[in-house]
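Subject: for your reference before the review

Hello V.,

The reviewers asked for a structural picture of the protein, and I figured it would be easier to keep everything in one thread rather than splitting it across files. Below is the amino acid sequence we used in the manuscript, unchanged from the supplementary table.
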Amino acid sequence: MKVKQIFGITALASAVFFSSSAMAEGEFIIACDAAYAPFSWEENGKYRGIDVEVLDAVAKAADFDYELKPMNFDAVIPGLISGQLDGAIAGINMNDERRKIMDFSEGYFDSGLSIIVRKGSNVTKIEDLQGKKAAVKKGTTGALFVEQNESKYDFDVAYYTSSPETMMAVKNSNADFLLEDYPVIAYQIKIGVQEGLEIAIPRVSGTPQYGFAVKKGANQELLKKFNAGLKKIKENGTYDKIVSQYL
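And here is what came back from the structure prediction:
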């Protein structure tokens, strides 16, 4: 199994790098998100993270070669659809809309929303937040969850424009809880970026999964290889070892 990492791929304008003539025979071109810790980010001139390491382990287990293309997330799906990428592992939530244009592997990570509170709040279930104030970012799945349950739990809702603002609101007692993407907040808390906060409920209902993606109807052999490799690394414990480093 051979792998190479190509840096500086930030947009489809860099399509020259995706030319199949530049790739070794039998080598797949696979994208990851250039900046999405703990799944993929550059550190000391090399990409690391759950997505990067899971892909590497899967490729070894399924015996295929690939070139890793870190790029902005907004270029990943267009790159797949245009055929400039063979596959992508970039924290892509699988949903019905995306399944219209992409085929997915078996889920490789359970994502979803976490409920975050100040340390010592003694919140263990959603009912403990009855009548409490939520800090949410506008237009997010977290905001939608709170809005859908506002009357049921008598939530008071405060809207913010960024995740750091919601976290600061809870830290400063301007709100009682917030909702954030589970793996992102779990990693931030683990490395000490969000001191004073804790995950009260790791995942609320309706947990989506991340999947490895290919263009719909294309690269089915790669998809089969990914699924086979994923099965192997879950069975032999490699998958759990990778994830436990970060979460």
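For the response letter, the relevant points are probably these. The CA atoms of residues 140 and 180 lie 9 Å apart. The two ends are 27 Å apart (CA to CA).

Happy to draft the paragraph if you're swamped.

O.
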